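User: Need the bound-state model for zinc ion:
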Amino acid sequence: MKALVLKAYKQFACEDVPDPAPGPDEVLVAVKACGICGSDVHGMDGSTGRRRPPIIMGHEAAGVIAGVGSRVAGWAAGERVTFDSTIYCGQCAFCRRGMINLCDRRRVLGVSCEDYRQNGAFAELVAVPQHILYRLPDGLAFEHAALVEPFAIALHAVRRAPPTLNDAVVVVGAGMIGLALVQALSQAGCGRLIVADIASDRLALAAKFGATHLINSSTEDALGAILRLTQGLGADLAFEAVGVAATVNLALACLRKGGAATLIGNVTPKTEFPLQSVVTRELTIYGSCASQGEYPACLDMLARGALHAAPLISATAPLAEGAAWFDRLYRKEPGLLKVVLRP
Ligand SMILES: [Zn+2]
Ligand SMILES: [Zn+2]
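Assistant: Bound-state model below.
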């Protein structure tokens, strides 16, 4: 099969590799669409230690079943499917509590780190365990289904700290996850849905997805603006989708007393923490990692038009052009959100 292989840091080849052989509990999926994730782009230069060459990256995919292992039941060749980006074991203490995203033996497709190497979906074929598969609703295009993973991350975050009716909610960061959050929150009964980012094109998309107030934090005092919009009280909830000191601190500072922040972004491993402010204002902080069973809800919402994948896709391109698109994303070309490759 053809695959886009990360041969060395920042160096790709679209080349012939052996077809993956599905194990007894695995399904072979002919990949029709696979999105390039920010974690792939950050990881390709070696900075995260989670994309060690050689590796076939790609964990946001959809396709058609091309073959099934000997113990697979309930899945057949020709079915349209997507799959969880995370392979969970189903056996550990966390899986048995339903916390599959926190599995002790968690492996992410398209990741190679100190502990494992799991080839992903920037390839014509990928083998995945049957227990992470989901059927695609009729009429949901492969390219749109490939975006179910970032939407599931957003839905999981909203489920960590769901708004109550008419809450003032702030989303800090309008990248892929931030914009998926805005879409999910706009369905969740917020009163004010305030979005802060430094890019005006992303803020314009947020408005299209239901944001009621936009703050360009490169030109405005974001904290002051949020306090003005909330009668000086602060927001009930904040969702942080960047993960650097300034944005984490904004997400905490903009809350009312007793408010809650859900932290998703984590591009920096550590930040300064406003201890006294959190303690004396009785703030609640939630971490939110990946997703925990939100795929079926997301697929349903995408299929009935409650979530919108199309406006988040900047380009769809053949797998052979993958290296060039990775390069454009790596150089942070303005205006690019999700790029979907078609093997
Ligand atoms: Zn991803
Ligand atoms: Zn487990």
